[in-house]
Write a structure and sequence with these properties.
Blueprint lengths: L1 H4 L13 H19 L10 H19 L8 H19 L4 H26 L7 H22 L10 E2 L2 E2 L10 H21 L5 H14 L7 H18 L5 H30 L2 H8 L4 H14 L10 H8 L12 H34 L9 H16 L9 H16 L10 H34 L9 H10 L2 H11 L6 H17 L4 H13 L3 H12 L12 H16 L4 H15 L14 H23 L12
Helix pairs in contact: 2-3, 3-17, 4-5, 4-14, 5-16, 6-7, 6-8, 7-8, 7-9, 7-15, 9-10, 9-15, 12-13, 12-14, 14-15, 14-16, 15-16, 17-18, 18-19, 19-21, 20-21, 21-22, 21-23, 22-23, 23-24, 24-25
Length: about 650
């Protein structure tokens, strides 16, 4: 404990000025780095390292609080914001889908933690702040990995396993593994550093040049976020410079040249995208003005109207979009944070989100405008935080960036910084506030520890999982029987269940699947899995009944998300073969229905492992076998008997 006491000479010291504060700062860096490298892909179990590190972090924070160190009060707005976070936490915990609730609860936990951190960082209104160095380090590591991947052609990522129990990871991009998240992180890190440099009276060169480099790298990720982010960030940085008291000619010339180059790069990216990949101006506008995602947004708003106050529950959009709306286009997310908030958390949650963001942006604009008149209180952190929130708030119209733990934490941290500048005079946290902070910290710490212990076996198994082409994935099997997560269940059944699976194994899988269905009722992904189990158990009639509603509504249910129709065709084919000798008329009807179901999927085959040439070859062989079977039965004089459809 002596080492942790650091330079404490008086109970009025700020926590950030002590050695304990520096320990906490180091742990914060590790937590955020773990979010970038482990949890950035969005897998629920990948948050295990960050949750484990969160426990010692909150313990150290509580030590600092109990020792009487100064902590800045978040002000009335800050307390209201944390109360709003509590609302989202409670609402997420009551979702009909337990695992979706866990996903959102984890995100909200990190949001609250980083918001409080932001208020503490923003409370130090001196220019000496380590946050820009932290952002520069994280952005630089991200850039180094991304550049190395492009030069070497190696798409493996640091610390994240190449294979997870869900199958092979997508092509990795930097620390994130996904191009849009990668490009967005480059943008917000770059513009934070540039805006901080423009608002600072200190030597600004190294951070400005690094920020410009990161912005430039965002264009190499082939992300739709790059150009809009650059355009918006450039306008904000120009606004910051014009309102700042430190007007320096050299800085103005350098900034003008750099941002002009960045805008030229952005425009070139759009034009090249038009000529090389998109082919037409209509398609380009479709890409940058929301495109096919407009249908997803309409679905979300329509669903929000069905539960206007409190919404349907955390991430219920995924399920309800398939259940209620025709013409769904891969609706894993609404790709519109505001519409999804209205659907999942109701218009109350949507309004709270707008108030939080609007208040933060208002505080940032007010602080920037105050710099027009000379002020001894310079606030360069506000400029960077304002850039992050403005870019994220506008970009959220077409991407689910706040469902990513790393990007959500960036936004929450920036919002906390802005809220700390709300009151003109910063006050120390009162006794009641310290008590409240302690309770919040202890609760979060205990939750993080319990969560980390619970998912640790799953996290370890993800490192040992085999590629999705195997049929003997022990890690995936163990995870399925231990956790009963819907995605794990469906992937295990698709990968491992086949005609050679023994009857006893099928019964065990059937029982485990029932537990998964109990935890995630009305989960459409599980329907195809249930039908597949019935198929290999020889329960053809039950399997057909399960999938019939999904296959008789071609505009409503497609194989974009789950292999309903493909599984349905296989069920009809197998059932028809079983009845070919005893009931040839019914068999002929089943074969014809299977052919009608399978043929349209030939050119639009989007279900699991559809890109595998061997699987595609098998698909074509099945169609040919169906056609041959139909010819043979017709030659034998069989006529279609559709009586099986009446059951």
């Amino acid at each position: 404990m002596k080492n942790l006491q650091g330079t404490m000479q008086s109970p009025s010291l700020r926590l950030s000025d002590t050695k304990l504060g520096r320990w906490i700062g180091g742990i914060v860096f590790i937590v955020f780095f773990s979010l970038l490298s482990f949890g950035s892909g969005g897998e629920w179990y990948a948050l295990c390292p960050a949750m484990a590190i969160l426990f010692p972090f909150v313990i150290l924070c509580c030590i600092g609080i109990f020792r009487g160190y100064k902590l800045p009060s978040p002000g009335i707005l800050g307390w209201l914001a944390m109360t709003a976070g509590g609302y989202f936490l409670i609402r997420a915990s009551t979702s009909p889908w337990i695992f979706n609730a866990i996903d959102d609860v984890n995100l909200i936990i990190f949001g609250i933690v980083f918001f409080i951190l932001g208020t503490c960082i923003g409370g130090n209104r001196k220019e000496e702040n380590k946050l820009p160095a932290l952002i520069a380090t994280l952005g630089g590591l991200h850039a180094i990995l991304w550049i190395w991947q492009n030069i070497s052609g190696d798409v493996s990522s640091w610390f994240r396993p190449d294979y997870s129990p869900l199958g092979v990871e997508l092509k990795n991009f930097g620390l994130f593994g996904y191009k849009n998240f990668c490009g967005h992180f480059f943008s917000i890190c770059g513009f934070f550093l540039c805006a901080w440099s423009l608002g600072s009276s200190r030597k600004w060169g190294k951070y400005f040049w690094l920020g410009s480099l990161l912005i430039g790298l965002s264009f190499t990720c082939h992300s739709r976020a790059a150009f809009p982010n650059c355009l918006l960030g450039t306008l904000i940085c120009g606004f910051i410079y014009l309102t700042n008291i430190y007007h320096q000619t050299k800085k103005f010339i350098a900034c003008s040249i750099i941002f002009t180059i960045l805008l030229i790069l952005g425009t070139s990216f759009v034009l090249l995208d038009l000529s090389n990949g998109k082919g037409s101006l209509d398609t380009l506008l479709n890409t940058y003005i929301f495109g096919v995602r407009i249908d997803l947004t309409k679905e979300a708003w329509s669903l929000a109207d069905n539960a206007p106050l409190f919404g349907h529950g955390a991430r219920m959009y995924t399920n309800l979009a398939l259940e209620n709306i025709a013409g769904s286009h891969n609706p894993n997310f609404a790709h519109h944070e505001y519409a999804q908030a209205a659907c999942d958390y109701g218009y109350i949650g949507f309004t709270i989100m707008l108030l939080l963001l609007g208040s933060g942006l208002f505080i940032g604009i007010r602080q920037i405008l105050r710099q027009i008149h000379y002020s001894e209180e310079n606030a360069p952190l506000v400029y960077g935080a304002f850039c992050v929130i403005a870019i994220a708030s506008i970009h959220a119209y077409g991407e689910f960036i706040w469902h990513n733990p790393a990007l959500l934490s960036c936004s929450a941290l920036s919002l906390g910084i802005l809220y700390a500048y709300g009151p003109r005079k910063l006050k120390a946290l009162p006794i009641t506030g310290k008590f409240t902070y302690s309770l919040i910290a202890i609760g979060i710490g205990l939750y993080g520890l319990i969560y980390a212990i619970w998912v640790y076996p799953m996290f370890i198994s993800s490192w040992n999982a085999a590629p999705c082409t195997t049929t003997s994935n022990k890690a995936l099997k163990q995870a399925f029987f231990d956790y009963h997560h819907p995605t794990l269940s469906t992937q295990y059944i698709y990968q491992s269940v086949n005609a050679k699976t023994s009857e006893s194994e099928l019964k065990g899988i059937d029982s485990a699947l029932s537990q998964t269905e109990a935890k995630s009722p009305n989960n459409h992904a599980l329907v195809a899995s249930r039908a597949l189990i019935y198929l290999y158990q020889g329960k053809y009639e039950q399997a057909e009944k399960v999938l019939r509603p999904y296959c008789q509504n071609p505009c409503k249910y497609t194989d974009n998300m789950y292999p309903w129709k493909t599984t349905y065709a296989n069920i009809l084919y197998t059932w028809g073969i079983a009845l070919a000798k005893t009931e040839p008329n019914k068999s002929l009807s089943l074969f014809q229905e299977a052919l009608d179901t399978l043929t349209p999927l030939t050119n639009k085959w989007l279900y699991f492992r559809a890109s595998d040439p061997k699987v595609r070859k098998k698909h074509r062989q099945d169609i040919n076998s169906l056609k041959l079977s139909i010819r043979i039965l017709k030659h034998q004089g069989a006529t279609p008997d559709h009586s099986w459809k009446k059951n």
